[in-house]
Specification:
This protein is an alpha+beta fold and 162 residues long. Helices cover 20% and strands 39% of the residues. Strands 1, 2, 3, 6 and 7 form a 5-stranded antiparallel β-sheet that branches. Strands 5-4-8-9 form a 4-stranded antiparallel β-sheet, with no helix packed on it. It has a two-stranded antiparallel sheet with strand order 10-11. The chain is rod-shaped. Pfam families: I-set.
Amino acid sequence: PPRILTLEEPVLHLEHCIAFAVHGNPAPTLHWLHNGQVLRETEIIHMEFYQQGEVSEGCLLFNKPTHYNNGNYTIVATNQLGSANQTIKGHFLEKPFPVYQISTLSFFCRIETPKFLCLDPKTFSFQVSIAVGLAAFACVLLVVLFIMINKYGRRSKFGMKG
């Protein structure tokens, strides 16, 4: 029956690799589980191995894995005489932005968001409209000052040309 000789934690080479070695005669068929569910191989996650005598050695390869790929990976080796499996924890990335619920309005606020922005959407939109109004008022005031300086600021007090 098959025996799993080694199963190593993910290591980054050109791609992330969970290395394994399985012994069995006849040669076992290999498949993987991710958190107990059958892992479907894609261009991003695929298995490469070679058979040398009664030993199959290879890698489960990950091309740029994210936090969605974190979890338990189980290799299952099966032949006519039996089966064997072994599990290893694969951790690739942390979740990028932890999100916390702060009100019953289902409005989410991130840790790095300033407290005055952690409000329900109606209050937040009111604050934004006030900020836009103040910015528009400041722009109008600057344009009026610029026009007045250009109109009245060119005259010399004493009638001399400088």
